[in-house]
């Protein structure tokens, strides 16, 4: 009993100190990894924030959000962390929006609607609309895959959402997302049949007896590594119907097909029955 009392009494100060420690690092302790801003860059960032109604109290967050990781070669950047957070926040609110706005869309088609609302094309469009390409800091690197500026714009936009979430809270981040992403019109009806995009396009081509599109790898980098990325285009003759990128050939092809369906096959989608009993993985448009 004496020994037990000794251990308990000796642990009490330690327990009190542990309980008093904050669970999260206060935002005021946030440190930036971005290099020093020039007066011109600082002014441009400030103007950008004012034009878009971004009232961030921590200027370091804004600087890190607008400084892509490529700008600081071989450096650990906060931009990647902010982008990861922004991606999750955007995905969460997109899923919530689709769930409440389109209650009749089957569960397997929700991802198709979310991708149109917040996928690469939407990110690039919103990024250009708010003026990110004019202020973002980045550098082209030798392994960059075509349209690198579009991908950087998308990444920086997600980081900006993450910074807004950290600085102003969930409410401010949601207002920004709703205004810029969910106000864009979409035809939700076509998404009920786009759960399996390759199977759907295959059925459309066979039914309409149109020339079968062909998928081609436009660019690739890091093949065979966890950081692999592919850019795939879907072509009908010399006309590119759509494109998409992903961490595998299959993912990039699927996104390219989905892009083509949205752009060129809306009427055909409405007229055809959704294919059933077809394995999506067994279909490819690669030669």
TrEMBL record:
PROSITE patterns listed in its UniProt record: DS_RBD, RNASE_3_2
Subcellular location(s) per record: Mitochondrion
Protein name as it appears in the record: Large ribosomal subunit protein mL44
Main localization category: mitochondrion
SUPFAM superfamilies: dsRNA-binding domain-like (SSF54768), RNase III domain-like (SSF69065)
GO biological process: RNA processing
Record's keyword annotation contains Signal: no
Domain of life where this protein originates: Eukaryota
UniProt keyword list: Mitochondrion, Ribonucleoprotein, Ribosomal protein, RNA-binding
Alphabetical list of InterPro entries matching this protein: dsRBD_dom, Ribosomal_mL44_DSRM_metazoa, RNase_III_dom, RNase_III_sf
GO molecular function: ribonuclease III activity; RNA binding; structural constituent of ribosome
Domain named DRBM: residues: 196-266
Pfam families noted in UniProt: DSRM_MRPL44 (PF22892), Ribonucleas_3_3 (PF14622)
Record family assignment: Belongs to the ribonuclease III family. Mitochondrion-specific ribosomal protein mL44 subfamily.
CDD domains in the record: RIBOc
All copies of domain RNase III, residue ranges: 45-169
GO-annotated cellular components: mitochondrion
